[in-house]
Design a protein that fits this description.
The protein is mainly beta and about 220 residues long. It has a single domain, classed as Beta Barrel (Porin). The protein has 1 helix and 12 strands; from the N terminus they run αββββββββββββ. A hairpin with a 6-residue loop joins strand 2 and strand 3. The longest helix is centred in the first third of the chain and has 28 residues. It is elongated.
Length: about 220
């Protein structure tokens, strides 16, 4: 497989935009941690939901070659924490991981996949359950936070970007403290157009996109305390 760093994908990305994005994501980390630590004291009850599912999609184009890079569909797993604030409203923490790989349709890249890739989401937001339901509780949710993309190659750097999600689903309660949860959510990760990513000396990709979208379908055992 040809080394992707031979292709000059690092031309003319904006250092101002890169610095701004780095500053924002660095500032968000301690804020998310502080909020997560303060939530148990504020909440009336908490739901802990370890989930497994499938994540689909995620593609972006290269600015120089017009090649399309695709994130392979793969399993996703993680944890959701929901803290009651009102009978039908909760504060939600979403932690989700996908072990996948990046590939391309460009014939210049003779080997596929290009490299393995781990994509993590660290999100904070809210959930609203529709009223007037008993054991089955439909809901909508929205979160925001960070996307961490870690290429499994020592010569390429990890990228952290801002992201947000919108979702819907249902909770099915067997008892007061135990049930199932089903989710479908779309997660959008913002990228600075014409910025280079996965850099280390050279850069693997010079993005021609404002971001990429993934869809996640999950099922989970839900425990309420």
């Amino acid at each position: 497989m040809k080394d992707v760093r031979r292709f000059d994908f690092s031309i003319a990305h904006s250092p101002v935009l890169t610095l701004f994005s780095t500053a924002i994501t660095t500032a968000l980390r301690p804020l998310l941690i502080a909020l997560a630590l303060s939530l148990p004291a504020m909440a009336q009850a908490v739901e802990v939901t370890p989930f497994i599912g499938q994540r689909y999609g995620g593609s972006f184009a290269d600015a120089n070659t017009a090649a399309t890079f695709q994130v392979a569909d793969a399993n996703a797993f993680g944890l959701v924490f929901d803290f009651d604030t009102e009978p039908d409203k909760q504060i939600e923490i979403l932690l989700s991981r996908q072990n996948t790989y990046l590939s391309t349709n460009d014939p210049l890249f003779t080997g596929n996949p290009l490299f393995d890739l781990t994509i993590d989401y660290y999100h904070l937001g809210g959930l609203y359950m529709l009223p007037d339901y008993d054991k089955v509780r439909p809901f909508v949710s929205g979160t925001f936070g960070l996307t961490r993309m870690e290429p499994k190659r020592a010569d390429l750097t990890t990228e952290t970007r801002m992201s947000l999600s919108l979702g819907a689903g249902a909770k099915i309660f067997f008892t007061k403290n135990l049930g199932l949860r089903f989710d479908v959510r779309g997660i959008y990760t913002a990228l600075n157009a014409d910025t280079a990513i996965f850099c280390s000396g050279g850069c693997a990709i010079k993005v021609n996109s404002s971001g990429f979208l993934q869809t996640e379908l999950t099922a989970a055992l839900m425990m309420r305390f």
